[in-house]
């Protein structure tokens, strides 16, 4: 039985006899089944299609009667034909592929376009033009018809008769009118072509309120100027727009194509492989032929290749004729979209038989031939993607975020740009989470590229079952992942990831792997459809928790583990908060200076009820320590005490809560804690803990200006950390040694320690430590009079601190800028910086800093001649200094008070008292720090 839908319904027997199908509803039923192309259609849907909103009273029974009538009509014409109308659980279907539309599509695929057009008897599904059920199939067939006309026209063949009839049916179709105008012009009817354009322009304005598009307008101009190109149909399609962002790729491909006979452009769907190949073909010097393989099946390739090569041969064995034809030709053959076909054998034979042949292939995976030169076509850079998007959308807005979320894939950018007119840039950005529905409905390109989903569907359909399972399970990873992680989370072998890399669905970079965002979104949908999302996410969380708990950030493996955890940050962030994960990552966050992230995650984990009390205690310690310099709503001292009550006298807790507060907390409380921690670490023979605690006690000794204790504890700490090969520990151990050298005036030693510390911190990526040590170098430059370098170093340290969101490091750097500004006489700048940080130090209880900055502000007031304000500030500094017990801080306040008094005798007594304190502490004021003392003495003299 033969069915025809490319015009009014036609039914014939195998012998060619016409079959009468009575009753309009029965014919509509048959056309509905034909439009679904062998797929079952439910009874409810058929009822809706046939009767719409006014179904008969017994709709199911009436439908069954119409089905029976259809079967009877078929059976009467051809015994046994009633079996073609099948019924199953999913509904009714017509079990036949002998339909003129199937033949039409097969001839289109193989390039037999004229034969395909000969099957067209009018409008597809002409009897049911007003029925929604036929719309998608009808539009696809008619689009193929127009595509065939366009291709024939581009080959120079006559299509005027067909286009004349078709433009009457589709009076506003610009693409069809473009073909018609070319056909008129090539038939020598320029006046008629111009008249047809004018009529279309008027119709568009009247019906749509729009002018013809740029392609049609350009064609109109070409007709007006008798463009010779209209007379010479191109062998390659003419792009509508310039190629954006591919200059380097184009140059590289041209160079490779000049020296290699087989070059394959490989990349994900929509990345622009075809557009790049066409541009390469347009710039090539020899004959170029394009064979579009996407619509072809394996057995149709030779016929289509013969058509592309303009070879007319009706023999049953085409290959020998093809090889003979190519033997003497100089030709570039572009094989576009090869991934779904096995072409290796054919390509090998073509290249062997034709020395003058070069093949440029595009595919989502290599052909796999010896001698094949594979060029990966990457997504556009962000800058190029922005240029492309702005040009296509006609906007100048900042679209960087949109372009990044669309991975720089040109197809996705082109589809998204079409939505800007309706949604605006911000509206589009807000809807990208629903990208597959948003980026749908494109027209004018191949069907597989009209929506973002269709592009990925094309690749998905080419995968085997295991590859599909792997791809959808990879969707739970965030950022990048390792082969080990992919295998563990998916319960599938690693080689499947590599197979997906070859198919351009997984991106490989420097030993890591990731999915483009659109592929990830698509794969997640597939994972949900398969009912596997919850279990896969559980395995993902289990794997990454185990990884975090396995990480050893103490000792020689520190650098490698920091790098490994850096790679997995995005994966850690998508795991639901838990105390296990938060406590496992806390030390990593601290080393990396991610204190804000640490606080947020720890707080979220602590808010989850019913967790292990021991883990809760650990998390409270970490949280209190991380909040040590965060004064926003946190009583850090009380939080530390509560945390210690939760864990008892745990030495690590005692040490961590001291280390993070050494410059700000109550010195007596902190000293007691660190002494207890040192005793416990010693008893337990915990060398890392002991080394860490000794370095912290050395820092506490800075507050009391005890040089001997600073050096003794630091050197012992450094010795232990050297034995443990712990670079972070080396940084900690040398901090007090740097300060001891600086306050003793030994600047070469301080500089050597600082430069070594910066090298180690940069190597580990500990940027907060780099900030502190860089500011330390700035202090040395300041003390040695190199103010320009001091400002440069302090500013560099400040930028790093801001990037790391570390207030303590930022304060240290900006106070250094303030000191330099005061030395250079820029008192307003200095005052602004000091005042800003005095408020912050007051909030967090940073008594040593309060004392120092109060004195600096006092010196500024004194230099301005405001002695009353200066005295008030120095008295405040003196009071804070006495609370710290640091004789150097007390001496500085006394020197300031000497400058603020109007009584020479009092001033001399204060200066003598300050000098005595400094000598008693064993730390006389180095010559480089005599600036204020010299100035004050000179004034009194």
TrEMBL record:
One Pfam family from the record: Trans_reg_C
Domain OmpR/PhoB-type: 1-96
Recorded family membership: Belongs to the AfsR/DnrI/RedD regulatory family.
Record keywords, A-Z: DNA-binding
DNA-binding region ranges: 1-96
InterPro entries: AAA_22 (IPR049945), BTAD (IPR005158), OmpR/PhoB-type_DNA-bd (IPR001867), P-loop_NTPase (IPR027417), Sig_transdc_resp-reg_C-effctor (IPR016032), TPR-like_helical_dom_sf (IPR011990), WH-like_DNA-bd_sf (IPR036388)
GO biological process, one term: phosphorelay signal transduction system
Entry-linked CDD domains: BTAD (cd15831)
Protein name as annotated: Putative ATPase/DNA-binding SARP family transcriptional activator
Highest rank taxon of the organism: Bacteria
Matching SUPFAM superfamilies: C-terminal effector domain of the bipartite response regulators, P-loop containing nucleoside triphosphate hydrolases, TPR-like
Molecular function as annotated in GO: ATP hydrolysis activity; DNA binding
